[in-house]
Queue: 3 jobs
Job 1
Amino acid sequence: MDLLDDRKRQVVTAGETRAVVCDRPSVAGSVTQRACSFCGSRVVLYPIADALHLVHGPVGCAAYTWDIRGAQSSGPQLHRLSFNTDIREEEVIFGGEKKLARALRELVAIHKPKGAFVYATCLTGVIGDDVEAVCRMATAELGIPVIPVQSEGFKGTKKDGYSAACRALDQLIGTGPTEGIGPHSVNILGDFNIAGEIWVIKGYLERMGVEVVATMTGDGRVDTIRRAHGAKLNIVQCAGSMTSVAKLMKEKYGVPYVQVSFFGLEDCADALYQIAKHFGDPEMLRRTKEIVKAETEAVLPELARIRKDLEGKKAALYVGGAFKAFSLVKALRQIGMQVAMAGTQTGGPADYEHLKELCDADTILADDSNPLEMASWLALRDVDLFIGGVKERPVAFKLGIGFCDHNHERKIGLAGFEGCAAFAREVHATVTSPVWSLVPRRAGKGSA
Amino acid sequence: MSLPIAVPSSKRPAATNSCRVCAPLGSVLAFRGLRGCMPLIHGSQGCATYIRRYLISHFREPMDVASTSFDESATIFGGQSNLAAAIKNLVRQYSPEVIGVCTTCLAETIGEDTVGILREITTADPDLPPIIHVATPSFKGCQYRGFHDTVEAILRATARGGERLPHVNLLPGPVSPADLRHLREIVAAFDLPLLMLPDYSETLDGPSLASYAPIPEGGTPLAEVADAGRATGTLQLGATLADGPGAYLEREHGVPLVKASLPIGVRATDAVLESLAAFAMESAAGTSASAPITPAWLSAERGRLVDAYVDGHKYVSGKRVAVVGDPDLAVGVAGFCAEIGLVPVLVASGALTHRMATALDLLGLAPGSFEVMEDADYDSIGRRVAELKPDLILGPSKAYPTSRALGIPLVRIGFPVHDRIGAGRILHLGYRGTQRLFDEVANALLDHQQDSSEMGYAYQ
């Protein structure tokens, strides 16, 4: 692959000593898979189910993020509606603050949310709307927290959007009562309850005897987030998006945090043990061992069967955050697959160093990749599977390569022990499909 | 549930569940129908990423669209260097035959002189491929407008006048790849040379490949578009277009323009075939060719369709439907419904044309028998559907929450269809497309009736 000059330093093979250059803006014209800063804050906050999420901007920003993640809620479904001030030419000329204030009044009266998030966009940023002032006024007038999320699309990368979301959460945390919160209590940070995954994790924690105070933000509620500072430990999963909330809570409220992942058998077991060890309760540790043993034994026979079919097959992956990449490399190894290429949108220098340790020497590592690069590596390494999101899917499918969605739009829960089995089943279903024997890449070479 | 209904989104302070998307999406779609064209969106990179994701969910095809990736300094000082860098990088990676630049709200609001910047860039590097620019701020219009404005921009930049040529220009509007393929087949049946703009029938519904195509094969070559100003005539589909790109060709190059509703239903398809026959006569004038007759396979399809109408008429007769979609598709489908005895009680679109009601009157729908909602969001559409209680909804996937909440079956048409495969292969046009639509509508009603019956009969 003839890389663009500006991109060469962002691609290495794992065995090289050279570090992956990362944490930089995308090269113009390179067809990055990254979205914008606005997207970062919108996807992180959107699963809070009893809040009003109002996009202050033109129609596209709201329409493209309408129910974007399929984040599930056990109660209110307000987050699944798309609210938008639908800025038109008139507001571009005269300003959109009045429309925003009217929108908040109207929507709060209809939907009676517990709180509201107002997302600024490029357009309302450049016309100079004072979103913060409108939110302050609305908070006083409407009697609920109305929180500005200042992540105009042009302000930095998706990661900066994550930070804006964390600042917004910080405004809520610490404003609710903490009475009745026990000593073995946690918040779950960085799980968005895609396909009900947070319920799986909560199930394990409950069996361990751990109380979950707030979930951020999957199946999230405004009032539980307000009392999150009462929990005794933060469990951070999607490290990229939520570590800064954990750090803030440590500074402000002295709540320690652990970084974990619930994807893959190893990581999932490790996560539960870390939590149990933190509380130092021997009884809890005993229960945790039981859970890990029982859950692992329940899925191992199926994983072994699947492994027989997948042994030696090759995979490539391109995901948003590095933590997901770590887990996937391990989860793929569990079912006998090698990782030929691994890339992320938002990984940092330390993440890539860790990824180097995890991967084989010839694994291609790429930061902020694009379809042409990925397509060339999929073909070069002749992979059997590509793992990514909706934007990566056609790159794989067009070339006749199996694909597994590990992002927003999947409908299968992949977290926890049962999630490992679901993941393995999905990988198996795509990799062993008979259709590959018909695609040009494989035709005439025997079946895949 | 206290909101007034049928108030356009623009008159309300907030839209809930938008029924439209933004103008650059329509622009990208149109650019994808030009051979070797690489679309470039001038603004924040989220715009390109979201549009790609949305189009991929519908077409399930690669959708490489570049962005000039504005940051804060570009927003303050202008995006000139970003635009230059983006063009340089995409030329190196994609070797496009043409670059289609459309703008975002951001670029338009900071007063970026995109035309001037592009002139400088092309002057400095004469080896660059042609660059076509179109302004697509979404605060002025949605994907529907972005699409037609882009078609017009391509024609303005490319079409040249001169001696008449025998071909006909076909401006199909934002229809499906399957529709485009079928239109081409129909025009070919009249022995008419065709220039169709855009034509993404191959680029957005392509074959499985051994190696990745940076720009998918297919599309109308720019060199052919140059001849648009010399065509025998232009056939522009879309009942709600005021002037449309075809009017530009007529004004500027004297190419006679015939406007027609989308060929959905027997009568609307008859009308389009009559226009094509007339063009074929005109095109063949002075040659020894005989007057064109409707090709046999089209007559056969028409005959089968009418026969199917008869077989199924009782299942649809008097049933009430709500139709949601792009204005021209919604109007076309409503016309088809009226033709088979379905009663369109609500015809809704997220776009604002001010012309849907008139277009429906012209199709022969009894004035006062239906309601039209333009500039609507799904919240107001859903409220009205809940009150009108139709038996069926025809519309995109985004109507599914309404369909599910009210227990009214949904037949998926138009864009976007995100929750099924084969969206690009949904055929709406011609006798064949109408046949498919009719079978699906009748079967959706039968299905619903069968599912809600107690005895679960297997005969109908």
Job 2
Amino acid sequence: MTATTERQPLLRADDLTMTFGGITAVKDFSFHIEPGEIVGLIGPNGAGKTTCFNMLTGFYAPSNGRVRFKGQDITNRKPHAIARLGLVRSFQKTNVMKRLTVFENVLTGHYMASRQSLLATFFPGEAVRRAEREARESAAAIVETMGLAQRMNAPAHLLSCGELRLLEVAVALAAKPSLLMLDEPAAGLNSHEAGTFGAVLKTLIGRSIDALLIVEHNMDLVMSVSDRIVVLNFGRKLAEGRPAEIIENRQVAEAYLGKAAA
Amino acid sequence: MTLERNILLAFLAGAALLPFAVTDQYILHLAIMALFYAVLASSLNLVVGYVGEFSLGHTAFLGTGAYTAALLSTQAGMPMWVTIPLAGLVSAVFGFAIGAITLRLQGPYFVIVTLSFAEVLRIVANNWIAVTNGPMGLAGVGQTLFGDVAVTDKAGFFLIVLGIAAVALYLSYRFVYSNAGRAAVAVRENRYVAQSIGVDPFGTAMQAFVLGAFLAGLAGGFYAHYISFVGPEVFRFAFMATMIIMVLLGGKGTLIGPLAGAVIVTVLEEYLREVQELRLTLFGLIVMAIVLFLPNGLMGFIALRREQQAAKPTLNAAKERTV
């Protein structure tokens, strides 16, 4: 094993590779997330960030490499099984249950906390009623945290783009994840909204979640919330470090902007 | 949620009074068929409205239940209180087996494969003469309820089917408003979100599917005793068409919808009897009109109107609604 065996990372990916036919989307990508960390995953369009997300959460089966979460090997497990271990993600293309209200969306997110036997479904006892009450209270609290209290009973399809992103995070939070992974959560937010959003994200660590992985193109947001940043380019890891180091990194600037004229 | 529950309770309570108020055998027969169809439509609604896939093979469970009850009654002389629950259980087992195959499919694939299962069962019923008596069917299904108490009049059958309807609505209500029901809705609305919050799409769909099969089996068991004859027709597409019309007309994905649909269609069918040949044509037109203009059925239409009403007036009204 590696040098850091004394303390296990929350999530550890080794040599992840994903090929689609002849195209290699991600190649030998390794990284880890420690408890308490906010990690930003950035890179130009098509760098393989979303593919990484899909491999980590079981939506894609990696062609090669392993994923470990809380010390367990979760490579090739089903998405719902991975979610039940506490690794919950959001999606790049806004994904909520459009015909349900904000509250119902978040309440549905509590699925894992209130799972019950079939018998209890049909003949609910006090325990089920209590779980139901707790789920409703928790759902209301999460809606409040994400600043959607005024839209509590609005059907999701009536929300603005920014509100939808918040709702998406709220649904993911409702699943009480240990590691939350957000795929471009600030897309469509204006800079003021993005600032507020970043502040909310920071308060989550230690309170609602153990760690956060965020893919985002809004550099101000990523740089301000992340403890550490991993840069992907053409499916390979280009750089890794603290935000200040990444901003200084010549290779990263070239990947985004191209080489400066000599 | 509470409104829906109260309407259902009021409906059942009102229905319970019917046999005491009405003695006309013909009307009682209509009421029995309406409730029988209400159970069937509710069970189909669990698949169409909560799994979100369109099953054309729901008659498989109706027929399995009917044959189970008929065989237990004619071969073993068992009374209704045994045969009808067993009919439900056997159908549930069939539901599990068929679901294990079909629920891996989606969209048109699911439709076709469920349809073929019903068709296969019909052919089996038609040809396995040693057990099913083939096209002649099983006649003389007993009418004893328990011990030597026999159900002799329509009022008795009405109370039995009302009991089954109450069980069906209770189980559906519990399922739909439980965590499992919410998970089913999540899968229907957005498969990806459902998985990311830990819902197993296959397992959740299976629960709704098996529950639907169980309820359809109960209805089938009742049908066998009431008509006292079961033939391969129970697997025929005509039942399926009727169920679909009821669910679509009433509104899929609601509990009251299939109930309302069953009552309306049963009554309409009787009215339209006079125009014999045109009947099915008219029903075809009705279904087309519903799909085009009321895609969420009557209940969907009412819910929409209520939403519009609530969205219009003052802030106070909106506040009241959130409380």
Job 3
Amino acid sequence: MENQVQTIIEARKVSRCFPMAQGEDFYALKDVSLQIPEKKLTILRGRSGSGKTTLMNILGALDKPSSGQIFFDGKNITELDEDACSLMRRQKVGFVFQSVALIPMMTAYENVEYALRLSGYEGDWKERVEECLRMVGLTARMNHMPEELSGGEQQRVAIARALAHRPKVIFADEPTAELDSGTGLQVVKIFQKLVQEGEATVVMTTHDVGFMEVGDKVFELEDGEIISER
Amino acid sequence: MLDFVIQKMLNRKWIVLCLLVGNILLVGIACCNPMYTDAIQQKTLNRNMSNFIVENNRYPGTIVLSAQLKVNEEGNTAEQFTAARDAIGEIRDQLTVPSLMEVYHYCIPKMDAMTDYTYNGEQQKKKLTVGYIEDLSEHVKMVSGDFYSDKTGEDGVIDAVISQKGLVSQKLLIGETLTFSELKDKEGNPVRIRICGVFENSEDEDLFWVNSPSTFTSEILISEKVFNDTFVDYDNPVYGMRGTFYLLLDYEQIRGSNVSKLLARTKEYVNAYSQISSVTFTAYYQNLLEQHQVMVRRVVSTLQILQVPILVLLAAFIFMVSRQILEIEKNDIAILKSRGASKKQLVISYLMQGGILAGIGFVIGIPVAVLLCQMFGSANAFLGFVQRSALHIRISAGVLLYGLAAVILSVTAMTLPVFKYADLTIVEHKQKQSDKKKRVWWQKYFLDVLLLAVSLYGLYSFHNQRDLLVDRVAKGGSLDPLLFLSSSLFIVGASLLALRIIPLILSLIFRIGKKKWDPAWYASFLRVLRTRNKQYFIMMFLTLTIALGIFNAKSARTINQGEEERISYAVGADVVLQERWSDEEEEQEEFPEEEQEGDEAEAEPVQINADDYTEPDIDKYASIENVTDITKVYVTDQATISVESTVAEQNSEVPGKDGKGNKKEEKQDWGQQQVVSQQIRLMGIDTKGFGETAWFDTKLLPTHWYHYLNAISQNASAILVSSNFRDQLGYQLGDSLTYRTVTGADVKGQIFGFVDYWPTYQPTAEGTAEDGASTTVNQYLVVANLKKLQSVDGILPYQVWLRVDGSTQPVYDFIGDKQIKLVSFEDRQSDLIDMKNEPIIQGTNGILTVGFIVVLLLCGVGFLIYWIISIQSRALQFGIFRAMGMTMKELMAMLAGEQLFITLPALLTGVAIGLLASRLYIPLIRIAYQTTQSALPSQVESAGADIVKMFVVVVIVVGICMAVLGWLISKIRISQALKLGED
């Protein structure tokens, strides 16, 4: 069983400290090591301030660890410079954030298309955009501006955008936090579907214990350390 | 609440500082106009008064009450006579200006007197005025003889003194006794007066001598007591007597603030005394002050009009910055609202903030205004300053009022946008955002088209009334403010129209390459196109700034250049002088002071003869340092041509009215046709020297003016004539024209060219029609070879024109050293300096320069603020872009793209509109500055150097901006930026 599942991301003894004004450094992450399995839904669970978002940002090359290494798809990304990180992100990673994170001056369609534009997607953009929007069930409203969409709809567009350029990993930071439970569940179902169809690996953070069941793998964090792994 | 407001302001110190700068400038600019007007008014008033003394040899603060006591008239003239004297005291107390002295002069004019002394056996008959001046003894010293005594001599003879000039011109001797047959003593015997002494003024500068002793050419002065005892009987006047009472006001105490009061009072007196036939009231300063008031009104209105666009721009700046602050704080506002803050509370808190800023702006703005004023005072050209004596600046109540008005304007601009934002709750805030697609109100109502149409209509109608405008300005009126308003409207309207068009063009470009744009530019395009309502203001601001800057620069350049050219053209060369050629001229020069009132008899044409003159050596001027060229120019306005009267009638532009003095009466009947003689200006030149020396703008004639000079140099009888010979009198090229010189000789010339312009030549002049209205009169010019004229007339006095390379001071030194007597002297350089000192020119240069600097400052600060805030408020967006894998470089490219699509079109439209507005409006605006009618065509000067300066500043600002923005963005941590969105 273990042999069948490939590891897409591996963190080795990753720490992240923030210098504080008082002089005492604050460690958001302390020597965290973990492995994210490919084409699975991994959940990082923890209360607010447990370090789960910091960990996710580091895994997704948005932030750099103070010490330790991250191997993404077999490559040590801690050694990459800013531009290389950006290039990596645009090719291999998609992000979904807790709050609305669409580009406000672009329509739903354009938001998704923009990910293709950035990654230099080779295929037919229109087909792919519509395909992604269909996946999240939003084809009807694709020419609306973000502000004309509800929170759940916006989040679904964000997911479509995150998966449009066929990234290896989609990171979702508390994607359900601002949505009502019904809509939240819908969003998680989309992630489940993506994983099941083999579209991508999904890493999702949540503070909600209710979603722990849907994860293929669950890491629980507290005070910057992994306290349980399932 | 105050603590809360102050804390909030401290948190946003940079942007609040910008707002403060805007406030300070607003108060400063608003206040410096009244301050400057007041100060410059004082300065010119003093200067004009001093000039008055130099030019008229009179004390400008003098009020003269002259009363006649008439014989054989019902008693009231006696009353009026004494009342006039008493009135002096009343006037002194009534006028707010302190007086320095009062002089009372009584006399019995022009009595026949016989000398005891005989010449060739006959007694000499004289006409002498007998009078006295109160307190004479304190102001004279005796040149010879003694001062008179207060008693009649034992022999019944009265002592009198006489001025030196009087002694000489009346050919009297000291000790001589005169018998006045018309004056009788108490016994009825003729009065006998002895000249006992000759006086002169005891001090060089003595106000007492309103008329200097040298003007007492036919008056003898006796003791007051003796005069009154012997001649005066008010109840039953025996002699016609004149009393002249002088009140000398301290003109240095005449201030800008009391001019109108003084003038009003003075006019009251003039009116009141004009009712009384025996009394006349004259105030020397009246004309001067009236002209001064006209000047002040012109300066005030012109400066105000020039100031308005700057003030509007400042208010717009404050409005924009306030809105930006609110844009950052709108979340806070929404939160405060949801926590129960009322709209009123919110508005009050922003009102407080505005009040604090405007208050500080007021306190600092006033000293800034003083500084700006001094800058105005030393403005010599656009963006050019010279050292001048500092203005005496007062902070009057009026100034504070202007400041207060500026504060109110500023607080309004700061608070107005609050109302919109204060209504927001979180829910509404979200809803509001979806209104973005709506058209902005001015586009919906076609305000841009409307403004443009109104301004163009204004331009059109002003063009049609151009002559009326010229006339109005010539009469001392100011230019219609609507004209300036119309130019401002044009700039605003055109800017708005451009804002309507630019996005359409951008969107077209965007569509063309929609698929191909790289991600950064794609995002820039979308940002600019989709949030265009947010960009309108900054675009508008930039466009207005640049357009106004260019318009100001070009206005200033054109006005200055135009005035300089006008003066250079009118003078003709660097120095134009004429020496005194004969003693006769000297005689005429010495006595210009005799009473000049009343109609001057038309001078009989004196037959001019070259033998009366001795030609001075003019080669001496060549030795003066800096003088490079010299030429002789003979100019006379007394030459004539014969014109058929029907044609002559048409010359004058007012139907049927001939210009006074421009046409002689002598008319001859030549059969049916009437022929009148038309005065012309005849100019004799030495073509080579003239070409080298005279100042002339070659653009004024169709071909280089040397061609014209060459044309007449070949042929002795060749002449150039002004174009009105062709247009009004029907002459053709090659026609011969006979003109009569001052010696009466008829000279035949052949027309080799028509000229619209010629050094010093004005095609038309202001004349007075028979009904007293001013009218335009054609001036005719004939330019002939000097040698030809001299062969006909002999050598008559001519002018010497000098070209001077550098300072003209050596010319002055030379003339002083050699004691050369001059009939006339004109120095182009000093005329130019005088022109630059004219308050209206100085103030215009000042305000345009200050305006330009303010505009640049605002442009820079406004731009920087706009972008800093725009970037700060978009931190989350940048986070998203970065998270999606945009590199730092691409992010910068995106911002650069936005600049390109917002700033560049705005700047370019600004330039285009500025140039267009200059071209349309400056020729009309220049009229306001033409003190006299200018022959020269007005052309809009290019201000290339200034525009380059402006662009250098803009490029620097944009550069700094990009650097600051880059630094700001690099500071944004993606992870933190994204977290911002999580709250």
